Amino acid sequence: MTLPTCETLILEQKEHALMITLNRPKARNAMSLQMVQELMATFESVQSNESIRAIVLRGADGHFCAGGDIKDMANARMALGNKEASGEDPFYSLNREFGRMITAANQIPQVLIVVTEGAVLGGGFGLACISDVALSAQDAQFGLPETGLGIPPAQIAPFVVARIGLTQARRLALLGARFDGQEAERLGIVHQSFASNEALEEALAKTLNQVKRCAPIANRITKQLILDVGHVPLESLLDSAAESFAAAVQGPEGQEGTMAFMQKRKPAWTE
Q1: At what angle do helices 90-107 and 33-46 cross, to 10 degrees?
Q2: What pLDDT tens digit does each residue of the chain (271 aa) get?
Q3: Domains annotated on the chain, with CATH
Q4: Which residues contact 119 (CB under 8 A, 6 or more apart)?
Q5: N or C end of the chain: which has fewer CB within 10 A?
Q6: Report field, pTM of the whole predicted structure over 0.85
């Protein structure tokens, strides 16, 4: 597997997991356009790689992500003078690129595990909302500060609503509320929060081990099935699910899983 060369990310493969660290610590890992594009390139490079079964996304030096990079907003404002020549609104292009990235992250076939610490704001909040598993420090600070800056959380709002429901999303977005990891757990943004870094790391290791117990192709099929709920008519979805089930039962993973169960041993994919 060839990973892209990145300046704003640290990429490291550990067994069946790709560890992605947002690495702009001086900006509390605020998401620049370069970081967005490097994330997209990374997701694309691993999408079809079945040896990568989990992706862990976290931030460097005690912060997850403080939202969008204000410098990019300033650059977009400077580029307004070229709008007539290019025909593109630079603010639209900047915002929409983040939306494409978070959509790609949401649809990545691997198990996406997000570890949140420190600032979890704006775009960082959005990334937490599209994770398959979210683990947090209890003292992490979550929030949607956009409206306080005079802008909407344009690309994030749909994913927040999908995560926690319309009622809570309205409150958080329209008040720009700030809250900690414990409240994020109560709201369902993260699945677990931890008082110590040691407990957080132990939970991450346990989660990665749990991923290893699941058959890689079955996990991919299951994730796509879950993502299709509400977007594909139910009867069509169930027809497709039955076809996937039949193929899986007769395929290598289904045969190995059945044999391992009967022989009272672990399946090969756990090794």
Answers
A1: 30
A2: 689 999 999 999 999 999 999 999 999 999 999 999 999 999 999 999 999 999 999 999 999 999 988 777 777 677 666 655 556 788 898 899 999 999 999 999 999 999 999 999 999 999 999 999 999 999 999 999 999 999 999 999 999 999 999 999 999 999 999 999 999 999 999 999 999 999 999 999 999 999 999 999 999 999 999 999 999 999 999 999 999 999 999 999 999 999 999 999 999 999 8
A3: 9-212 (3.90.226.10), 215-270 (1.10.12.10)
A4: 28, 29, 63, 64, 65, 66, 67, 140, 141
A5: C
A6: yes
